[in-house]
Amino acid sequence: MGQAWYLFECYNSRAIKFKEEFRINTMIKSTVAKIYSIVNISGEILFLNDAYIAFANLDRNQVIGRKAMDLLSITPKLFALAQASKDRRDIINGKKELIRREAIIASEKRFAIVTNDKLPLIDSGNIIGVINETDTGIEQLIQNRCFLNLKPMHYRGEVFGVSDMKLLCMLAQFEGIKPSDISSALKLKMNTVYMYRHNLLNKINNIFSGEKYNMADIAKDMFFEEQVITRQKILCIAGKKIVPKI
């Protein structure tokens, strides 16, 4: 893709100009599937796009200038935090031009299996920070190893098989997703999708006995168990590093 220059207003009211491999502004306007954050060398937040604000239920004025890691809770904690710090250093020191990782994330109201790309923020030829591009879209999901390697799970007396887990995660991540979308994404026949959905909903209805439920809340409860997710906080189960094809 062509490179372009963009301006973002930073927390200190100074405009930062940076060069990027793709058209961020166009992407942000055309899709809500990607959420962006930009941090400086010290890890302080310079920019969050509207999709990030909406996902995390943030007040932008309260988080710009804060350390990005203050908003995250990552497991496994020690390894994941050390790896996240190393990734940022590798980008800032110019050792890597792109680092891609997969993860399961959740906020107070949302759940997603995502692919995160870290790229250098460049000003006048110098690396001055890190751009985080997190893809929450369905196309990355069906190639995401966190999704592909889902295992059966026990939840409130019911056993959810691999097919149950994949469908549950899709329903939790994409509110209002249609069976035809699932059929197309997973390359399944429509009657197979309806059968999987019927089996999944039967198990969930057995658990909740007619009470209202939310798929995102169920997924968060299964993956993050009893962890409390508060406003302006994102929980993350770190996935493996992958080598992107450029």
Distance between the termini: 11 Å
Estimated radius of gyration? 19 Å
Q: Biggest sheet, strands in spatial order?
A: 4-3-8-7-6-11-5
Number of helices: 10
Instruction: Please identify, by name, the CATH architecture.
Output: 2-Layer Sandwich
Give the name of the CATH superfamily.
Answer: PAS domain
CATH class: Alpha Beta
What amount of the residues lies in strands? 25-35%
CATH topology, which one? Beta-Lactamase
Helix content: 25-40%
Roughly what is the average pLDDT, rounded to an integer?
83
Helix-strand topology string: EEHEEHHEHEEEHHEEHHHHE
**Main β-sheet, in a few words?**
7 strands, mixed
Kindly name the structural category: alpha+beta
What does the model show?
It is a single chain. With 246 residues, the protein is α+β, with helices and mostly antiparallel strands. It has one domain: 2-Layer Sandwich (Beta-Lactamase). 37% of the residues lie in helices and 30% in strands. It contains 10 helices and 11 strands. The strands form 3 sheets. The chain has a 7-stranded mixed sheet. Strands 1-2 form a two-stranded antiparallel sheet. Strands 9-10 form a two-stranded antiparallel sheet. A hairpin with a 4-residue loop joins strand 6 and strand 7 (111-123). It is elongated.
Summary?
The chain is of the alpha+beta class and 246 residues long. Helix content is 37%, strand content 30%. The N and C termini lie close together (11 Å).
Main attributes of the structure:
246 residues; alpha+beta; 37% helix; disordered N terminus; PAS-like_dom_sf; PAS_fold
Q: How are the SSEs ordered, and which strands pair?
A:
Blueprint: E1 4-9, E2 15-20, H1 24-30, E3 34-40, E4 45-48, H2 50-56, H3 60-63, E5 72-75, H4 77-92, E6 99-106, E7 111-123, E8 126-135, H5 138-141, H6 145-148, E9 153-155, E10 158-160, H7 162-173, H8 179-186, H9 190-208, H10 215-224, E11 234-242
